[in-house]
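EI: anyone free to look at a 81-residue chain?
SC: sure, send it
EI:
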Amino acid sequence: MRFYKDKEKKKLEKVLCNCCGRELSMTGNFVSEGVLHVCKDWGFFSEKDLVRHEFDMCEQCYDKMVAEFQIPVTEREVLEV
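SC: here you go
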C-alpha cells in the first residue's frame, strides 16, 4: 500500500506490504528493496467488473506466494533494468 506526501501522488512517503504489513525500506522517494506493485483493472466477464485493485508485496511474501503455484513462474535473465 502506497502513501504519498502530496495529492498529485508524485512524492512517495512510505510503502507497506499488503500481505505482512511490513514497512519497506525507502531511499528518498524510492523503495530500496524488492517490491511487487500490482495495479489490476478488472474488466467484463469477471466478478469485479470495472473495479481497480492495487497492492504492494515485499519480496519475501512474493516468494511464499509463488512457492504455492501449481505451475512455476517463468524466469529469464534481464540484462538492463
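EI: The chain has one domain: 2-67.
SC: 👍
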